[in-house]
Design goal:
homodimer, 453 residues, alpha/beta, Rossmann fold, seven-stranded mixed beta sheet, four-stranded parallel beta sheet, 42% helix
């Protein structure tokens, strides 16, 4: 046989601790503020929404946080996930670059999201919680929390952004197969949903709105907590198993990345692959370029403002300093529903401000073209979100070719597109376009940012 | 951590040879007959449809047939596939039985089918073939051949059974993403398709009809060959990597199956898991019970006749002695499209006649109920075909409970149901029923069997 194409670690090498980048940052990120007092929030402020163990992770500055055994036991079903060398894709691109991808589509729900959903369900169960509410865009997070709920015996209620609810019936079916309840958002089940529908009955929804609805429901019942699929420190923390494993797999391969790429919506997949490498870099190790790839139609890092803003549309959440398009901004209904979020994770935004990472925005059609080329080379059909990374990888590989450089490129293939095939059908039928947001709506949303500095 | 739940072999342990059960059978299966002369066919008779290397495998009695390096190189992407111990499922069933499953859904196309499609594409490419035609039921085979075509640069034309074509648009999209062309069968592209449509314009199609169409097209062009996804000896041969790996994985586990189950349509998944164990048994090893699980609505082993019959509806194929419902029998349009075939593989049928294996028929609704229970326990949503095995496993596990026996049960989870979620949606909506075939149609189809003995 030829050289390895797959770097596999045995299950004893699943990381024993998550990695917290806060411990290695040159400056701490700006504090999260209470929306009423504008003072930094304390753990107690978050207690209605999250169990204390997750709140402590949210505010922790410890470098390593132990992964509980029951969580690792479930991780063992699909972790360590494989690191692949994409040789056929390299050949198709005729590039001297070496392209590796860490494949998170091997989880039962088909994406990286269970890395956090399993952990969140575990801590909630431990705290005596009976029911979780959440939002979902494309449905990757919703189905992952549904999966975790079925493993831990928790009820799960999911507010799914309406445009995705309609685009992705199979994703909904998956959540229901796992026993969760899935509602199109904005819905009539919450005051925030009803307020939006009153203004615009055909509202396509957004992650910001779905978050408002899920938070509102969770805050009303003692036995119910809220679970967020990205953005928050503890979610990014859970995802670092991706990069931690990849570092060990690069040891096996005797190689190290020059460039690391991940698609970024709320930032958890991106941080998952990038932060462990960035941490090594901050501690004096090699310094790869690190690129967060976002949709041109919802470009929070490349076009947003670094400012305090709400995480949701109804302004029920604390204020976070982040790259934001404004919490009232509604992105167009493009197919990468997991990237339709107005803001970016506080930690990712802070790293961008510090110049530790770059942002890159790519348009929808080029992403699908990239995804099809990748599928025909490697056999794996990427999720529309992941196609953003693939698209950027092609740019990097062609740059390497033009410059005659054999750089090592690593990207996170965050999930497969099995539940998103309608998007591919639409793409082949010529029905997809490069949607753009309304510039005046963006300007208005940015003008409406809270005046906090 | 607790005991292992996943038995993983490294890629050096992908089998180096496929296993041919013919070498170990106490009597050889009855010969395949030429439909004109009724004499045993020779390799030359099959040459219009298959490359000589596959024909030689079809007629081989060698115990081991070497797997070419380029095929193993592609297998390495997902093989060895994992063997899982389904501990949460055992707990949910409250059974003393130990339940293991070999998971073939890890292939890029999501089922066991690429084990053969990759091999078939390799040999065809080597023989200078430019285009392959094939049939597909649920689309698992079609998408797997499309995948193989994209890897080897072959055009692929797929006749997809119309009822599945309509039920499973995502499967179609997958084939197109891999660059194949997919046509609903019966179609107007062939004489056999047109003849069927003339009689019944809304004909739901069947695997037998789709085979006729694919064979007809392949026979017309020199640069085009035909590829079959099950039934034939060489297809079953390629699938034996499943059982060969499982034997090594049971060595790791320090265990051995008492019962082995697989769903059976044409028989390739079933033979893939069963034959290597059966071979050991025939050579004096332990003797597990081996059960082929089929749909109650298309029960070739349990209700069919063991007789010579055609493999297709238009009678373009040779005659094979097998368990058959009659080549003119059209099964009802239930959701496990991969099991809607009137016949059973010649080798599987022969083993059933010899009493080496059992048949078991299970109804559709119990299968979906089983699949949902499995998904909620293990996180993996099985394909509707695989649900037949899960349903039978539950019966076995409950028998073990009733008898107080801690038997070891192994089944092949042939594929995931990501492209079949509409079936789950229909199941939850109460829209599925236990379809049955028309007894008089079956009687007529059996009465019409060729009078050859």
């Amino acid at each position: 046989m030829s050289d390895p194409i797959k770097y596999v670690l045995d299950e004893t090498r699943i990381p024993k601790a998550w990695y917290n980048i806060v411990a290695d940052l040159p400056t701490p990120p700006p504090p999260v503020l209470h929306p009423g007092t504008l003072q930094p929030i304390g753990p107690g402020d978050l207690a209605p929404l999250f169990p204390m163990s997750l709140i402590l992770q949210e505010v922790s500055a410890e470098r390593e946080i132990e992964i509980p055994t029951p969580v690792r036991d479930i991780y063992r079903q699909w972790r360590p996930s494989p690191l692949f060398r994409a040789r056929r894709f390299e050949q198709a691109l005729d590039t001297p670059a070496k392209i590796y991808f860490k494949y998170e589509g091997v989880s039962p729900a088909g994406s990286h999201k269970p890395n956090s959903s399993i952990a969140q369900a575990f801590y909630n169960k431990e705290a005596g919680v009976k029911r979780l509410t959440t939002e979902t865009g494309a449905g990757q997070w919703g189905s992952s929390l549904a999966l975790a709920g079925s493993f831990f015996g928790l009820e799960v209620d999911i507010f799914m952004v309406r445009v995705s609810y309609n685009q992705k019936p199979y994703r909904r079916a998956l959540m229901e197969t796992y026993g969760a309840r899935c509602v199109a958002s904005p819905s009539n089940e919450t005051a925030s949903g009803r307020a939006i529908l009153a203004q615009r009955p055909d509202h396509p929804g957004s992650l910001g709105i779905a978050i408002s609805e899920a938070v509102e429901v969770a805050a009303q019942r003692d036995d119910t907590k809220y679970a967020l699929g990205s953005v928050l420190n503890h979610v990014l923390l859970h995802q670092t198993v991706i990069g931690l494993e990849a570092i060990e797999q690069f040891d096996m391969a005797g190689d190290y990345p020059d460039v690391i790429l991940g698609c970024a919506g709320g930032g958890s997949n991106f941080a998952g692959i990038a932060f462990p490498f960035l941490g090594k870099s901050l501690r004096g190790g090699p310094k790869p370029r690190i690129v967060a790839v976002e949709p041109a139609a919802c470009p929070s890092i490349t076009r947003g403002k670094y400012a305090y803003d709400f995480g949701d549309t109804a302004h029920l959440t604390p204020l976070t300093k982040m790259h934001t398009l404004g919490s009232t901004f509604t992105p167009p209904g493009f197919h990468a529903g997991g990237l339709r979020y107005h803001g970016m994770a506080r930690l990712v935004s802070h790293c961008a401000e510090l110049g530790l990472i770059e942002g890159l925005a790519v348009p929808q059609l080029a992403c699908f073209e990239a995804g099809v080329q990748f599928a025909r080379s490697e056999g794996i059909v990427p999720a529309p979100e992941s196609n953003h990374a693939v698209c950027a990888v092609i740019q990097e590989a062609l740059r390497c070719k033009a410059e005659g450089k054999a750089e090592t490129i690593l990207f996170s293939l965050s999930g497969h597109g099995h539940f998103d095939m309608q998007a591919y059908t639409d793409y082949f039928a010529g029905q997809l376009v490069d949607q753009s947001y309304d510039e005046s709506e963006l300007a208005m949303a940015l003008a409406g940012l809270p005046s906090v500095s």
